[in-house]
UniProtKB/TrEMBL annotation:
Domain Tail spike as annotated: residue spans: 120-356
Biased composition (Low complexity): 664-675
Listed SUPFAM superfamilies: Phosphohistidine domain
GO molecular function annotations of the record: transferase activity, transferring phosphorus-containing groups
Disordered: annotated span: 664-684
One family name in Pfam for this protein: Prophage_tail
Record-given protein name: Phage tail protein
Domain of life: Bacteria
Gene3D superfamilies with a match to the protein in the record: 3.55.50.40
Amino acid sequence: MQHLKSFDRNRSPTGLLVASTDVQRRRRINSDYEISFMVPMTSADYKEKIIPKGYVQDERGQFYVVQSRGRDRNSKVISAQVICTHIMFKMIDFKIPYNQYIDEAYGVHITTLLDRITAATGGVYTFVLHDVFALRDVKDWGRTTALAGLNDVINLYGCEIEPDNTVIHLYKRIGKDDGFQYRLGKNIISDSFKDDASNLTTRLFSQMKDGRTFIGLSADYLTAEERSLLESVPGAIVDNKLAVNYLISPYAQYWTNNVNVFYDGELIDQNIEDPKELLIATREALRKKEMPEFEIGVSAADIHKIDPDEQQPGLGDTVYAYDPDMELQRVSCRVLELTEYPFAMDKHSQATLSNHMMRDDTQVLADLERSKQILNDLLSGGRVRASAFEEFAKQAVIDINASKTEIKYDGRGIVLQSTVNALDQVIMTSNGIIVTRDGGATAMTAITANGVSAPAVVGILGNFVQMKIGEGENVTQINLNGIAAGRSDFHSAPFRVYMNGDVVARSITLTGLIEASKMEYSDIVAGTITGAKIRTSVTGARFEVDETGWRTFDSSGSRRIGIYASSGHNMSAITFDQSNGELSGLINGGDGLFEVRSSGNSDLFLSALTNTIFFQGQLNFAAAYSASGFKLEYVSGLRAELDSIWSALAGKASIGHSHSVTIPNHNHGNPANANSGGGTFSVS
């Protein structure tokens, strides 16, 4: 898409704005979303397609409402500048009904207010929450338009919005952090850098509704760092309860001097009633004020227009600025505002960046509204009110005290002198730069031709192309490839750490715990490996060992062999499973019995093929169901013994044999007896 699309008031397309030029889109977090462009008044684009309250659509698919047209004659060319605001701002045309007004309510969920805004717009505008927001007390909400009601919700719940036409997405913080850099020499065309320490706070007092504080709250709600800092103050914590209503910044020691031990500030939030919530709010507010605020303006080349693979920064993204000449050493900041030229290849985007402590746009608007209210109160009824005048004078003193650093010139060179403490100076001489806290008597930090001298280096130590320690091949180096040691050539060094986190090392001595790690293609020589899961593959045919036992799997992933602590055999048995997962059999070396058995649905086969199976000991067949296929030849000598027995039995009469015997009369062995007893007798 190379041109804006035009639509009528009903969002029906009317064509492309081919004559439009200087298309500029400006977006700021929770603030402006607008597109402006120039178009010749003699063109069909102007006469037929651009109508007040009509729409244009950019390459992102977002609709913008035509709000104003400014005509201009430059020589013979008559052109018009058209300014369009995002369709989200049409919510200003919807008034929240009186019956949806909330005078006062406690513990209100954010969706309660958003649903009322949706209803007020007839369901045109809807909202999507991407984070969880705490309940808030609401007072005097809804006596306004839907857009103003949404702004009140943003301020009350601390949201950041990202509109997608009529669908509004709400986050605690929009944007992403994918490491995008604004770098001199790559995409920075020009930049400016401004910091401001006027709101610096290292000790923050706080109050909530009715002037109450968190004094008396248990110190257990403090973080370890907060507790340590408060315990350094005598009497701040008594009997494990907070005795003060302030928190101390961990950077307090860095900023302390012989005039200010702390830089004090105060937080007053009438919407908070819970001491624990006040503590959390104080913690968050202190984090925003404990370092100087800064703002960076960058004009950057849109490399993504010619290289689609190049990163493109988005509104709210966390980015990193690198311009060492401007004291930007890969400074982390957020994109607060973007001015883009989506259809021009010869124009580059401008971005406004700041650190995360920088007050966002809603806070700035709140301060402006507060100042305006002071002026209204001051001139109420044409009379000067004493209380309002005192508030006005206090505000004036704050503005006066927020003056810039004083610049002086003397025999030493250029002197940047603090207006708070004249002894705090930065002196630029022909020999170098000196940072001093005693008016130049001694240098706390010095930068000369010989190097940098400082008691400590705080923060990120630059973004260098290359650093090297040592000589020859005995060097340690840091460059755009990563970190290497042991050789001048990075890629052949025995120890290397690449930018993506990969580590190559010839030898490592580890003492401690390695967890949640993955090791590939390595030989491990170790004494004991405890608690690990060892397997030859993630899926398919493999074996595995872990704290539950040892097991193998076939190619379909079915378990086939295992030794288990929970198998009922106390790790003494090897179990064998079928492919369907059922038990096939086991070998168990239990106490008093060594068994080899199959399951109820499997046969057991013992084989030595043509070799011999030996049995030693007593064989007990008492539990055998039956024996089949057993032949006499399988027992050595048994056949010959049986044949000998049968041969002997063959010479004997059969069991059914009978015959008769005839004997004569006889005297039974006594000659005195008469002969008798003879005859024929039957015998068997």
